[in-house]
Amino acid sequence: MAKITFIEADGKEHQVEAQEGQSVMQAAMDNLVPGIVAECGGFASCATCHGYVDEAWTTKLPAPDAAEEGMISCAYHVQPNSRLTCQLKVTPALDGLVVRLPVSQTSE
């Protein structure tokens, strides 16, 4: 298991335990993290699981493929560390990962 911290745009933190092999998005969904909508179910076709990977982790993850890059370009408030959390697989090496959520995915 890996612990992942999701931080909402307002600063509220959610630390979850993620199963190896699942996506970071699924870990958020399983733990009811607000701001991860996942409308497409993890197929990289909606960007409603968009998050900002903490800068300390960006080089520890595989680079996004063309499909992910294309979908990220359609998201709101894109930053250099933007990723689709559905495309990030949980491994023991991700223990401690921090993902911030964009203001555009704030649940009200």
UniProtKB/TrEMBL annotation:
Kindly give the InterPro entries that the UniProt entry links to this protein: 2Fe-2S_ferredoxin-like_sf, 2Fe-2S_ferredoxin-type, Adrenodoxin-like, Beta-grasp_dom_sf
**Cofactor entry:** [2Fe-2S] cluster
What's in the GO CC field?
Answer: cytosol
For this entry, list what GO says about its biological process.
P450-containing electron transport chain
GO molecular function terms here? 2 iron, 2 sulfur cluster binding; electron transfer activity; metal ion binding
Checking Pfam families in the record gives: Fer2 (PF00111)
Q: Which UniProt keywords apply?
A: 2Fe-2S, Iron, Iron-sulfur, Metal-binding
Q: Where is the 2Fe-2S ferredoxin-type domain?
A: 2-105
Decide whether keyword Iron is in the record.
yes
Top-level taxon of origin:
Bacteria
Q: Does the keyword Metal-binding apply?
A: yes
Family membership, please give it. Belongs to the adrenodoxin/putidaredoxin family.
**What is the protein name for this chain?**
Reductase
Q: Which organism is it from?
A: Archangium violaceum Cb vi76
